[in-house]
Amino acid sequence: MGENKNGVLNQREMLYGERLGKMIRCETISSSFNQDLSKFYKFHEILEELFPNIHKTCEKHEFNGSLLFKWSGKGNGKPILFMSHQDVVEANGQWVHDPFGGEIVDGALWGRGTVDTKGSLFCFLQAVEELIEKGYVPECDVYLASSCTEEIGGEGAPLTVKWLQEQGVQLRFLMDEGGMIKEEPMKGVKGRFAMVGCLEKGYGDIRFTARGNGGHASVPQKQTPLTRLAAFMMDIEKHNPFTAKMNPTVAEMFRRMAPYTQGTLGTVMKYEKQLEPLLERLLPKINPLGAAMISTTLNFTMAKGADGLNVVPQEAYVTGNMRFIHHQGPKESLALVSKIAKKYEIETEPILIHEPCPVVDYKGKPFRLVEHVMKKMFPGVIVAPYAMTGGTDAKFYTPVCRNSIRFAPLEINEQQYQSIHGVNENININALPKAVDFYKQIVRHMEGWKE
């Protein structure tokens, strides 16, 4: 591609942008109802066109539209796995550019999935494609996974994990979506930070049901199913039943951010250990995101009452979405909520429960490897562990992996961060080459790794 460094970078940017653009132009919206796999098979054809070396060299497995490639290594060490999902959410609202146009405008590639998560999928596939082209053989087996059901919590990742279990695979570590490289990751924190997800909370969907006599709306009633549900929800909102407790991941995040944070927040971060009891009390009141990092949360999401506008329902329910922190898991958190619900004669029914995932030790080898490569590839970027408040496919991999690192080495700005599941999703194409090189370095650093 030429000797001029800037010229090479610019050529790579455009080449990668155009290649990722082909992936963006293939619409892969997943749906809980009537999942259409044909769009994903079309996407697979594009991947085969873009990454011929991977398809010729790697062992390929497909699970109802979800993909797994095995790139065999020359050694006997534990394998590693890179993963990013191929499905995307709907692209509603008014977009500046066609959400499935894959246009490159003003140095940015626009479209649904550029950030979440076809961008990172492209980068690790491109990294492996180029390594194979150069004749490189990895020290250990390298797996490349891409679910087509991440956005709907479907069977893609579980089926992949089931296959890995059947093969007796235990991963050294994996890397999935999660944190990225971002300037001012929290308000008042100045600097470029690589936010490496080390902690993923548990997950729960809960139905709360109230029953009563029902009747015609023209006859006034008290303590109806709906009014009891309303009182219950207000009680939860006013009197948070969950305990906030600082965890090592968030404490270390604060410690690393402290030198770059001015004012009171910086002082609190700097003296986090001494101020921990105060912080545990105040953080939930002043910062919702901070609260979510150190406690279980419950948000009410759906409701159903009568089928008619003039009917008092005999039965009504609301659903709640819970995210369980490690120190107060599903059993204890549900017991607290159920106790409050009983005051209002409301039944508590878990629909779906996932336990909190194993926490990645920021002092451990996998995290330190990511930190080492980041410092080498991205000078000036501060690496910090953080607690994820959302969920990823990595939660399904617990049976085969105890070190699930949730991080994609892509640099994004605030608008791009806000565009995830929103409008005008885009990524700067100059972020792609370094991300590709990051994954190459991770693979190469398996040489000489000792368990």
Please name the defining characteristics of this protein.
Alpha-Beta Plaits, four-stranded antiparallel beta sheet, metal-binding, peptidase activity, Aminopeptidase, 2 domains, eight-stranded mixed beta sheet, 36% helix, alpha+beta, disordered N terminus, 451 residues, metal ion binding, zinc
Give the helices and strands, then pairings.
Layout: H1 5-25, H2 38-50, H3 52-57, E1 59-63, E2 66-71, E3 80-83, E4 104-105, E5 108-110, H4 118-133, E6 142-146, H5 156-166, E7 173-183, E8 192-200, E9 202-211, E10 215-216, H6 225-238, H7 248-257, H8 263-270, H9 276-286, H10 288-294, E11 297-304, E12 311-312, E13 315-324, H11 330-343, E14 346-354, H12 365-377, E15 382-388, E16 404-412, H13 414-418, E17 426-428, H14 432-444
Parallel strand pairs: 3-6, 3-7, 7-16, 8-15
Antiparallel strand pairs: 1-2, 2-6, 4-5, 5-17, 7-8, 9-13, 9-14, 10-12, 11-13
Helix pairs in contact: 4-14, 9-10, 12-14
